[in-house]
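Before the break, one more example. Copy the sequence into your notebook; we will annotate it together after we see the structure.
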Amino acid sequence: MGSRNILVGTASWTDKTLLASGWYPAEANTPEKRLAYYASRFPLVEVDATYYSPPAESTAQLWAQRTPDGFTFNIKAFSLLTGHPTKVSAIYKDLRPETTKKNVYPDDLPREAYEQVWERFLAALQPLVDAGKLGVLLFQFPPWFTIRRANKQYLLEVAQRCAPLRVAIELRNKTWFDGDNQAETLDFLASHDLPFVCVDMPQGHTSSIPPVVAATADLAVVRFHGHSDKWTSKNIYERFGYRYSRRELAEWAPRLRDLADRTSQVHVLMNNCYSDYAQTNATDLIELLNG
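Here is what the structure looks like once it is written out:
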């Protein structure tokens, strides 16, 4: 298959530093025109905004309408569904728990409210499903989500809740890859047909996952987070503000082609979203893969 079944895109098209960078032509001056311009350059985008607050169905409808046939949206799962701290204000108004806490976790919600969050989150994506434009739901788990039986069970629960929609699993705790655990982790995902998210990211942190390239399903996902030396910064632009050299990306091209030979589709996302870094690097990568 080579590079024909590799879709390359970025993890944002609306970031304020991107808009300020001049990547968009002056006439792409509305959300509709910007998305159309982006979709004319790339076949895939990851929506990260859905991690911070669940999408409205009307928004998903607009995304479907404003992009050409064959365009693909990967949706990042809402933080509450991956066990990350979630702002009370991000939860649907009628489901917000009575609390003085600023951030809450799944256990802070009544069971019924938690079930409703799941239901509404998935229902809002229906316009993308109907248009054939939904790729995967990206479940990125927190750094404290370690390798243990209960967490493996939760991965299966997530897949069941989302079925028939596809999920992809991004782990952010090194225990999943320590020693023999790496084979165990990949075997577990493969035995349940769960796509593993390969990552390129700074190493040496608790949340660091090695750049393992593995196919655990007929679809593979690769996310590039950059190599910032400020990975632990609270400032997302410091964390992700890294521009890959062409040489670094060239080293990845054969690995991505190899992944493509073992799957029916590979989704590659540049998540180094600062200024036009992600868009420039995605363009570089497409050129390298086609070269």
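Residues 27-39+47-249 form a domain with the TIM Barrel fold (CATH 3.20.20.410). Strands lie at 6-10, 44-47, 72-76, 86-87, 103-104, 134-140, 167-170, 197-200, 219-224, 265-270. Try to locate both features in your own notes.
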